[in-house]
Amino acid sequence: MAIDLLNRLPVQPWMQADGARRVMRALNAGAPDSARFVGGCVRNALLGQPVADIDIATKWEPDEVTRRLLKANVAVHPTGIEHGTVTAVANNQPYEITTLRRDVSTDGRHATVAFTTDWTEDAKRRDFHVNALYCDLMGDLIDPTGRGISDLREQKIAFIGDADTRLKEDYLRILRFFRFNAWYGSGQLDVEGLSACLRHRAGLETISVERIWSELKKILAARDPRVVLEAMSQTGVLQFVLSEAIGLDLFNALVGLELEEHLAPDPYLRLLSLYPKDIDVISADVKRLKMSNYEKKRLLATASDTTDFSKEFSAKAFRRAIYKTGKDVFKARARLAWAVRGREANHRYWRVLTQSAEKYERPVFPISGEHIIAVGVPEGKPVGEVLQRAEQWWIDEDFPSDVALIARHMRLIAEDVKLREGAGSIDD
């Protein structure tokens, strides 16, 4: 952990980028300390982790922020003006800038806010102490809650103030609590926060399924979320989000395998490990969670695959199976099957299998519908039948590359189909 004991963040490349300097200098011109970096960018930089989004908090209200940025020739867009947020774009890098604020009223999903110039007041409305850290262009930190730095050092995720109050303001914070523990926690979840999540889990009913899936996906993508998933299960939050989840045995085995074998976490495969082997159940939840088309396709293709991994593959059987299944689905199903074996697995075999799958390049069947029509097969279903039968022969023969041999067998199949269709011999 890269936290300086003097509460100073070493200057980061993203802080010294020309775009960041232009934006911050425009906001601080004539009034130093009117704007600071805040939240995730500060937290991740302190932890030595990559920084993606750069957020800035400022004492200026949106109209003044806009005026100052335009004066500095920085593009600005009113992306969340009702909450005091505009987005500046400098050197193709977006900077989300939000006026310091306090909550006036909340309903568990939305908040009515009032602007303030008090850094502490702004910090107190945030969710966790580790997210309420601010720093300037020189890296000087301020920790208004007095616990942000220490909680980062201790890898503790704790709500600012009363946990029940924080959750009532926004029930999505239930899942954020688990996500931040999965990514930044030590494995020991804050008891007060955990108890509050248990009490308020029904509040997730008010949150859109898209936001729920977004948080759940991030939890599943953490390096080792086993303790967090166990806590979610014990509090009933997991069952509330995934009502058909059947337990954590396969999930725990899968995560353990990924860690032992240094495999990249696969959140989609981890999700499947929580479900029964029932494609209808999985399809229903995929639809309910409103996943993207890519996510739907990947999950359902993996869930519906019937490749038999109960016996070790010969080289020929491997080539046949992966060709028919597809590289990505085969790799996913192989990893699940490996996890199911657990300690009884022949790890050397599974390593070779997965490495071979990773290197696999799918051969291209050299026959097309045009070739089949060219030998006199009537267009329509007959062409499809010849194509399907010829490809199956090619697969069964272990993908021969002899074009003449393939063409000869295609003509034999075409002859059979054409005669059956009453179209005469292909030599007529």
TrEMBL record:
Poly A polymerase head domain: which residues? 35-157
Q: Which UniProt keywords apply?
A: Magnesium, Metal-binding, Nucleotide-binding, Nucleotidyltransferase, RNA-binding, Transferase, tRNA processing
Q: Where is the tRNA nucleotidyltransferase/poly(A) polymerase RNA and SrmB- binding domain?
A: 194-244
Instruction: Write down the CDD domains for this protein, in alphabetical order.
Output: NT_ClassII-CCAase (cd05398)
Q: Which InterPro entries match?
A: Bact_CCA-adding_enz_type3_sf, NT_sf, PolA_pol_head_dom, PolyA_RNA-bd
Domain of life where this protein originates: Bacteria
GO annotation terms (biological process): tRNA processing
Q: Which Gene3D superfamilies match?
A: Beta Polymerase, domain 2 (3.30.460.10), cca-adding enzyme, domain 2 (1.10.3090.10)
* Gene Ontology molecular function, alphabetical: metal ion binding; nucleotide binding; nucleotidyltransferase activity; tRNA binding
Keyword RNA-binding among record annotations: yes
**Keyword Acetylation belongs to the record:** no
Name of the protein in question: Polynucleotide adenylyltransferase region
Which organism is this protein's natural source? Hirschia baltica (strain ATCC 49814 / DSM 5838 / IFAM 1418)
